[in-house]
């Protein structure tokens, strides 16, 4: 039989197929790779350490469940009634999202009840539920920690003040909060709700503080050593308080070991963002800690997942500036507020 020369295109196909076959043969099914230098998809998950596979899969879908907001923030999942509450800070509203119903206005106004219009982020920011099942709000416009008087099932924009000042001076704009098991309330107070931020003439406190409020008590200064304290979370045993610093010149998370009084026993840097890591949009903001002590923290690009030792295990790239998150341990979901969107991703069972 006479030999015939193969066309060039066939030769190229054969070579490419051989290369692909060779590459596939050397890959491991559960291989772990570092974060890509260039993000090829606006939304994806990068597993950086095998420990991260205990929490989520790199193939998990990042789903948009609601959109159209000015700046979504402060998500809190309500397990008893199976729904999510979140703030739209500039719109001065809280929305309720429930599977099958979508998102609807839940409370308006949420953070500012005055009559003089405020242009910059007057609404509620962080939302938490107290031991009595009441909604507690970081009210940026009212410059206080407030509590909704009505029940969660019958929301009304009538609030009582928990604390509104420190040593007779009004807070800047409470941003995020967390309750300890003993009822202690910790919250951060950066200037983001003030019209001109840190330079606003109405700013009465010369620093950005972290505060502790004991049940029925006044605000105690926990720390004034974090330049822009923002997100806040407690370890499951309530012995560690984590604070995010949203200072563009010092993006980092701080770890506070607590003494028996709930005050600082020891302070250290939990993780500092490198200049290379900080090139992506966004920075340290809201965070949550799951029952096993793993930290889900907003950072450049989306959500960063840490173990308690401060090792980055994974990153969830949302494609948007990401403000906060909430863990739903009933359905194993992580809800994320991302600019004008609310997203979620499936976690592995606890």
Q: What does this protein look like?
A:
It is a single chain. The chain is mainly β and 350 residues long. 5% of the residues lie in helices and 41% in strands. The chain has one helix at 8-26; strands at 44-47, 62-67, 72-78, 83-88, 93-98, 102-107, 124-129, 135-139, 144-148, 159-163, 165-166, 169-170, 177-179, 185-189, 209-213, 219-223, 229-234, 240-245, 252-258, 264-272, 287-289, 295-299, 302-306, 312-317, 322-328, 333-338, 341-346. Strands 1-24-23-22-21 form a five-stranded antiparallel sheet, with no helix packed on it. It has a four-stranded antiparallel sheet with strand order 2-27-26-25, with no helix packed on it. Strands 3-4-5-6 form a four-stranded antiparallel sheet, with no helix packed on it. The longest helix is centred in the first third of the chain and has 19 residues, at 8-26. The radius of gyration is 23 Å and the shape is globular. The relative contact order is 0.14.
Chain-wise SSE layout:
Layout (H helix, E strand, L loop, with lengths): L7 H19 L17 E4 L14 E6 L4 E7 L4 E6 L4 E6 L3 E6 L16 E6 L5 E5 L4 E5 L10 E5 L1 E2 L2 E2 L6 E3 L5 E5 L19 E5 L5 E5 L5 E6 L5 E6 L6 E7 L5 E9 L14 E3 L5 E5 L2 E5 L5 E6 L4 E7 L4 E6 L2 E6 L4
Antiparallel strand pairs: 1-24, 2-27, 3-4, 4-5, 5-6, 7-8, 8-9, 9-10, 11-12, 13-14, 14-15, 15-16, 17-18, 18-19, 19-20, 21-22, 22-23, 23-24, 25-26, 26-27
């Amino acid at each position: 039989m006479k030999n015939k020369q193969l066309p060039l295109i066939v030769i190229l196909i054969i070579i490419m197929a051989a290369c692909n076959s060779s590459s596939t043969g050397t890959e491991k099914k559960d291989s772990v790779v570092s974060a890509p230098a260039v993000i090829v998809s606006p939304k994806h998950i990068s597993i950086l350490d095998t420990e991260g596979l205990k929490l989520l899969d790199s193939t998990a879908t990042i789903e948009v469940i609601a959109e159209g907001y000015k700046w979504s923030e402060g998500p809190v999942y309500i397990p008893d009634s199976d729904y999510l509450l979140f703030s739209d800070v500039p719109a001065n509203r809280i929305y309720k999202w429930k599977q099958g119903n979508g998102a609807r206005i839940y409370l308006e106004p949420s953070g500012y009840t005055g009559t003089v219009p405020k242009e910059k982020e007057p609404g509620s920011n962080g939302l938490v539920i107290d031991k009595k099942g009441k909604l507690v709000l970081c009210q940026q416009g009212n410059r206080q920690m407030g509590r909704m008087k009505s029940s969660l099932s019958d929301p009304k924009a009538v609030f009582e003040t928990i604390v509104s000042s420190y040593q007779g001076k009004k807070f800047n704009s409470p941003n995020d909060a967390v309750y300890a098991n003993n009822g202690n309330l910790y919250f951060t107070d950066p200037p983001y709700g003030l019209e001109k931020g840190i330079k606003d003439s109405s700013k009465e406190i010369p620093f950005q503080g972290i505060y502790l409020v004991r049940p029925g008590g006044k605000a105690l200064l926990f720390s004034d050593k974090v330049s822009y304290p923002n997100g806040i979370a407690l370890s499951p045993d309530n012995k560690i308080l984590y604070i995010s610093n949203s200072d563009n010149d010092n993006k980092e998370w701080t770890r506070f070991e607590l003494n028996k009084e709930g005050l600082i026993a020891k302070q250290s840097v939990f993780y500092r963002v490198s200049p290379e890591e900080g090139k992506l949009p966004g920075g340290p903001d809201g965070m949550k800690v799951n029952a096993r002590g793993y930290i889900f923290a907003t950072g450049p690009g989306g959500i960063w997942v840490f173990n308690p030792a401060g090792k980055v295990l994974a990153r969830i790239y949302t494609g948007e500036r990401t403000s906060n998150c909430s863990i739903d341990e009933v359905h194993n979901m992580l809800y994320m507020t991302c600019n004008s969107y609310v997203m979620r991703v499936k976690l592995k069972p606890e």
